[in-house]
Design brief:
Blueprint: E1 14-16, E2 22-32, E3 38-45, E4 51-56, E5 61-63, E6 66-68, H1 73-77, H2 91-100, E7 123-125, H3 202-205, E8 259-261, E9 264-266
Parallel strand pairs: 1-6
Antiparallel strand pairs: 1-2, 2-3, 2-7, 3-4, 5-6, 8-9
């Protein structure tokens, strides 16, 4: 159990699990409404610390520059997400948290802040800026507080994460198509030529018998198309990736505290910067 005198130093400290793995950082401490004993702390977890998770303080210990809790990181990150309305946990919310962490719960008052075997009561968040040792306060003017209030706002912390959206692959397969080409072919054909008897060819014409039977033969040829196929490389294809940056608008609801005075509301709603960083709660 962390002594009440050490509450002022908890804010922002690193919270580690049983194996020494970092879970997050302390954001706030919740005290018991009836006893003022510290019972819960909230730790920033999730992407960029965007989620506050409740962890019991019963067995938490200050070790070095951090806080060690008897739960592993996965256990804490999977804890029920509680919205402490107006800084209070309802009995139903508290009972659910007790059950999740394996603690006994009843509605009977607690005087020791979740020791082993005892039951809990309805808890409320308390800004320890306004808490002195042994005293419970909630920014209410009086002998136990200073002369100022802490006003807090929420702001969005937006980041990105890389997720797989699909896969692309290259695959080769064969297709068949008809291709036509025109090619010139040459063939021989018979043509009968006649020439008159002249003094020039008279000798050849009279060299044989006057009458006879003869045969003359010529061989005819023609060209025919011949098709041959060969595989030739035509191009190389590969897959590559390129990054394309687009602008996406992320919207969420943030809370902002207002402080009323007799003269009006501070800050003026018309001039409030919703991105103002939330003030420390401890």
């Amino acid at each position: 159990m962390i002594p009440e005198s050490e509450l002022q130093s908890l804010h922002g400290q690193t919270v580690n699990d049983t194996s020494g793995q970092k879970i997050g950082r302390v954001e706030a401490v919740f005290l018991d409404d009836q006893t003022g004993q510290p019972e819960w702390m909230t730790v920033n977890t999730g992407l960029f610390g965007s989620r506050e998770t409740f962890i019991p303080l019963a067995e938490a210990e200050l070790v070095g520059d951090g806080v060690t809790v008897p739960y592993d990181k996965a256990k804490v990150k999977d804890a029920p997400n509680m919205d402490a309305a107006e800084g209070h946990l309802s009995q139903q919310q508290e009972a659910e948290l007790y059950s999740y962490y394996g603690l006994n719960y009843s509605e009977a008052p607690s005087d020791s802040g979740l020791p082993t075997g005892t039951t809990g009561t309805v808890d409320t968040t308390v800004d320890t800026d306004t808490v002195e040792t042994g005293t419970v306060g909630r920014d209410t003017s009086g002998p136990t507080t200073d002369d100022a209030m802490t006003r807090s706002e929420e702001r969005l912390r937006v980041g990105t994460e890389k997720v797989e959206t699909g896969r692309a692959r290259l695959r080769k397969y064969l297709v068949t198509e008809d291709v036509s080409q025109t090619v010139p072919v040459t063939r021989e054909q018979v043509r009968v030529e006649r020439e008159p008897i002249t003094d020039a060819n008279m000798g050849q014409a009279m060299s044989g018998p006057a009458f006879s039977e003869e045969e003359h033969e010529v061989t005819l040829t023609e060209e025919r198309p011949v098709v041959e196929k060969e595989a030739v490389p035509v191009e190389r294809v590969r897959l590559s990736k390129e990054q394309v940056t687009e602008q996406e608008t992320v919207s969420d609801t943030v809370r902002s505290e207002r402080i009323e005075t007799d003269g009006g509301v501070y800050p003026d709603d018309a001039t409030t910067d919703s991105t103002t960083e939330r003030a420390d709660r401890i």
